[in-house]
Write a structure and sequence with these properties.
Elements: H1 2-9, E1 10-12, H2 13-20, H3 24-32, E2 41-50, E3 55-66, H4 69-78, H5 84-104, H6 106-114, H7 124-135, H8 138-142, H9 148-167, H10 175-191, H11 204-216
Antiparallel strand pairs: 1-3, 2-3
Helix pairs in contact: 5-9, 6-10, 9-10, 9-11, 10-11
Length: 218
C-alpha cells in the first residue's frame, strides 16, 4: 500500500527528471545549494523478482518528490533564484504574502476572533525552521502543495484547531465556535496531505481532522 500511495501522489525520481527536463546532477546541485528540497520519501528495498526466465533478489533505492516539485523548479528558473539566499528570500516573501491574504479573509478574521494571539508564532525563528523543513522535504510529506501558501495554511490551521480543542470541550463549545472549528477542519483537509497509511495515526491529520470530526460530531 505504501508504494501505491507514493506512486499516486509523488514523482519517483526518474519521472521527475523527465517531467522537469532536468538531470539528476542538477537536482542534486540545487539540493546542495539549498535552493530546492530533498526528496520527501527515500525507500531502500530488497526485492525478490520472479519471472519465467529468472529469479533474483535485487536491492533498489527509490526517491519520491512531491507532484508540485516541478513548480518550484520553474520558480527557480523564472525568478532567477541562483543562490540559496535568493531562494529563501523568495520563499519568505511568498509565505508572508500568504499570511497577509489569509488574515484579510473572512475565515482569517473569524479565527482571530476565536484566538486573537494566533499570529504570535510567526517569528523569524519560526520562519527559519519552516525553511529548513521545506529544504528537508518535510512539507512534501504533510501538505498537498509543498509551496509557501499551502505550508502557511497548514501550520496555522493546525495551531488553531489544537487551541480550540484545548479551550472548548465537545460538550461546552458554542454553536458559533463549533461552526468555525468545522470550517477550519474542512480547510485543513484540503491543504494537508493524506499521508501514507502507516503514518496517519501519528499525524496532525488524525489529531486535527479525524479525531475532531469524531469528537465534535462535525
Amino acid at each position: 500500500m505504501l508504494l501505491n500511495y507514493l506512486y499516486a501522489n509523488f514523482y519517483e525520481e526518474a519521472s521527475l527528471l523527465k517531467q522537469s527536463q532536468i538531470s539528476r546532477d542538477k537536482i542534486q546541485l540545487f539540493i546542495r545549494e539549498k535552493r530546492a528540497p530533498q526528496p520527501s520519501y527515500v525507500i531502500d528495498a530488497n526485492l525478490g523478482a520472479v519471472s519465467f526466465v529468472s529469479q533474483a533478489t535485487l536491492s533498489e533505492n527509490y526517491r519520491f518528490y512531491p507532484k508540485t516539485y516541478p513548480n518550484w523548479l520553474n520558480i527557480l528558473r523564472s525568478e532567477k533564484l541562483d543562490t540559496g539566499d535568493k531562494a529563501k528570500e523568495y520563499f519568505k516573501q511568498a509565505y508572508q504574502a500568504a499570511g497577509q491574504s489569509f488574515f484579510e479573509s473572512k475565515l482569517g478574521n473569524d479565527l482571530l476572533e476565536e484566538h486573537p494571539t494566533l499570529p504570535d508564532y510567526l517569528t523569524p525563528v519560526h520562519f527559519n525552521e519552516t525553511w529548513d523543513h521545506f529544504l528537508g522535504g518535510v512539507f512534501g510529506v504533510c501538505t498537498r502543495e509543498n509551496l509557501p501558501q499551502g505550508i502557511f495554511e497548514k501550520q496555522l490551521l493546525v495551531r488553531f484547531i489544537d487551541y480550540m480543542k484545548q479551550h472548548h470541550s465537545p460538550e461546552n463549545i458554542s454553536p458559533l465556535s463549533k461552526s468555525r472549528l468545522q470550517t477550519a477542519v474542512s480547510f485543513l483537509n484540503k491543504v494537508e496531505a493524506d499521508f501514507a497509511p502507516h503514518e496517519v495515526p501519528t499525524t496532525s491529520r488524525q489529531r486535527c481532522i479525524n479525531d475532531v470530526r469524531e469528537q465534535y460530531r462535525i
